[in-house]
Amino acid sequence: MAASGAGLGPDDAFAAVISLRRRANQLERQAVDLALEEKWTWAQIGQALGMTAQAAHKRLAPARRTELR
Questions:
Q1: SS3 (DSSP) at 69
Q2: What is the pLDDT of residues 8-46, one digit of tens each?
Q3: What pLDDT is stored for residue 62 in this prediction?
Q4: Are 46 and 56 in contact (CB under 8 A)?
Q5: Which residues are within 8 A (CB) of 29 and not within 5 positions of it... i.e. 6 or more apart?
Q6: How many Cβ atoms from other residues are within 10 Å of residue 46's Cβ?
Q7: pLDDT score, position 10
Q8: pLDDT value for 59
Q9: Cα radius of gyration (the chain)
């Protein structure tokens, strides 16, 4: 993969990746919370995220997120 020419070194590039990953996780949790408020099923949430209902629930259920903090 060619360098982007943005002048970033590897440390900066990885820091950006981590920052984007954290933001994506926040957005995903917010979307799940909104879906649950709108009475979506875990099957619907899983389908929207490209995973099974069980995988979505295991990873993103609000009670589970509290345990992981």
A1: coil
A2: 899 999 999 999 999 999 999 999 999 999 999 999 999
A3: 86
A4: yes
A5: 60, 65
A6: 19
A7: 96
A8: 95
A9: 16
